[in-house]
Task: structure prediction
Amino acid sequence: MKNNLIFLIVLFASCNTPTDNIKYPITEKEVVVDTYFGTDVEDPYRWLEDDLSTDTSNWVDNQNEVTFNYLKSIPYRDKIKSKLTSIWNYEKQTSPFTRGEYIYYYRNDGLQNQYVVYRKKDNSNSSEEVFLDPNKFSEDGTISLTGLYFSEDGKLVSYTISEGGSDWRKAIVMDTETKQTIGDTLTNIKFSGISWSGNKGFYYSSYDKPEGSELSEYTDRHKLYYHELNTDQKSDKIIFGDQKEKFRYVSGNVSDDNNFLFISASNLTDGNKLYMIDLRNNSNRIQIMSDDPTTDEYVVDNIDDTFYIFTNYNAPNKRLVKTSLNNLDRSNWQDVIPESENVFSVSSGSGYFFARYLVDTFSQVYQYNYSGDLVRRVELPGIGTSSGFYGERDQEELYFSFSNYYTPGNLYSFNPTNGEYDIYWKPEIEFNSDEYSSKQVFFESKDGTKVPMTITHKKDIVLDGNNPTILYGYGGFNISSTPGFSVTNAIWMDLGGIYAVPNIRGGGEYGKEWHNSGTRLNKQNGFDDFIAAAEYLISKNYTSSDYLAIRGGSNGGLLVGAVMTQRPE
Result:
């Protein structure tokens, strides 16, 4: 909440609070020159890359002092904070899931720093109890819950925590009935989930921990380990990653029947090799399922020796295929849900597959049986984003969520037999969604490419070019920007602002080709798309340059930095 609050205040203050008297601290330069292919490239701020140095720490403190002194001078800061706090203070809950004899779910009573894990017996008459409260992990709130992983029968759980925001995790094993810790705490786990093998142990991934900075030291060999309960972590076996070929990202997942271990290995954030170990013969022999690092594959489910694989091999918009243990080669893959004109993701539950298609950034959901026959299209509550439709094969009821830019997330219980659903949980919030609307438009980018953008605001807004507008973008790593509710955006629109999200190239909205057309040597395409989105908003009198703010984080921060440099006006 803190960062979003600062962002809103800065936007409102930028037109009304003088900045002439701000004295920015001097950032020292040093002489550092690298030569690439005969060209000298200066890097005068190299010293700031040392996150452990006193100079870097002092620089951060000085920047913060300037920033917060400015924020404190804004006369209506407290009013905005009060309004944010009021609207933010509503109960939030995630979709429930069944493990063992219990139904588990996460809930936040409104302003809690972290969601609390609750549970109740798997029947409607039981009362709920707190299972795990991360807000009590530390007095200062610097320890967070990052994952919750149950054993096969649900009697054990391994949960991971982060201390001070570190990517290096600890894993703690607990008896779910007594809530007592079992065995030793595992340490130095990074970029990893946990996958149990029965109830005796689990797989996890990590790197050799660097001797220097945990933040900036280079780590390039990810390894998959197996930990047996009640043994020392030092004796954990390396299952994969100690071979000659290095991989930066390795993960392992055990099949629901505990017969197979599927291993994904990659060096980039997209594309992976896929391997498998048959756990029934205790040989640990690694078999190749896909040896192509340029495509994405993972196993969705298996029935005995038949594997269902989700892939973009020969299918930029993805497809679901099946193969068998004796015919793993790609030439034997058979389509279950073939590629279509729309990119999709897939989940399984209650003995069905659910294909969630992205149709111009909006969700459409189709239900299939394991033979690939269409059962039905699930008629969603409206136009927006839906997630869920996953669970155990024998579950009689599944759950899904639905939201958009002006509708807080509602949870629904879904009957996979007849396709009917009912409201399972609905938030109570001080925000009237009926006063707002979203409109999707298509604008033309610099090279003629049609790019979609969703624009959301109050229904009674006047398009006179004077509306404060946030233009948000990401455009990277094959990630799709889909409609979702945000309290800070709700406040922004309630105060008369417009919120616009263009689906620029580099994202995954239209599959692999859309992603590739905005990466590497094509990165400028995404920048051009974002600039064209701004030009569209101005030309259609939604806003003007004086009232337009651009926003992005992580890869979106790179985007914002590039476009404000290329087109400052």
